[in-house]
Amino acid sequence: MKKITKKARIEKAREIIDRNELNVSFPDGDVQEFAAVCQQPITSAIRRMNPLFPNDYRHLHTEIDGVWAARSWRKLISPITPLQQAKIIMRHSIWQDMRDFSSCATPQECASCGASDDITVDHVWPPFDHIAMEFIEAHGVPEIEIPEDNFRVLDRFADAELEGKWVHFHAERAVYQLLCRSCNASKGKR
User: Fold this and answer.
1) What percent of the chain has pLDDT over 70?
2) Distance CA 14, CA 1 (A)
3) Sign (positive or negative) of CA dihedral 175, 101, 92, 50
């Protein structure tokens, strides 16, 4: 396959996934084309329902090097770095704190536009990324425990004590607000 842009590879991957049925293995030609688009040694693929996000119609299980696993097709195209993976796990570990804030906050409306639909919890200041980087500078990039079966979507800190330090560190610095998805997305990492 000739070199194509990341955007074109994403569009092609979507096309391949969308033309295959749920719970039916991709035909060999589609597997080969998908592997080429992702630039990964994929030998089999199948679409499944995403147990965490039922509206995700592109959830995949793929076989790479003899290991079947639920994998993000976008991460197959653009693998994430250990730092990005650590931040994902760090965000997941403070999710309960954010959920608690959301359930107690009143009024349940966007602090920016006043909307009451699709409300999310946002870091006012400092942003999550700043808090995470401050922790990483002090403690290093946390090691991640990846389950042996690779079927869980969310991994966790390999060191439970370090995870506890992170949760405490974050709680001391985070200030939250409610924003609708649109306002939160437009804010970015500011």
Assistant:
1) 92
2) 17
3) negative
Count the neighbouring beta carbons within 10 Å of the beta carbon of residue 1: 11
Position 118, amino acid: D
CA distances for 12 relative to 17, 37, 90, 118, angstroms = 9, 7, 32, 30
Angle, to 10 degrees, between the axis of helix 128-139 and the axis of helix 160-173?
140
Model confidence over 117-176: pLDDT tens digits? 989 999 998 999 999 999 999 999 998 876 554 444 456 788 999 999 999 999 999 999
Q: Which residue type sits at 80?
A: I
- Under 8 Å between Cβ of 77 and 9: yes
Statement: the pTM of the whole predicted model exceeds 0.85: no
By DSSP bridging, strand 60-64 and strand 42-47 are antiparallel
The span from the CA of 172 to the CA of 115, in Å, is 29
> Which of 11, 36, 16 has its CA nearest to residue 26?
16
For residue 126, say if its preceding peptide bond is cis, omega within 30 degrees of 0: yes
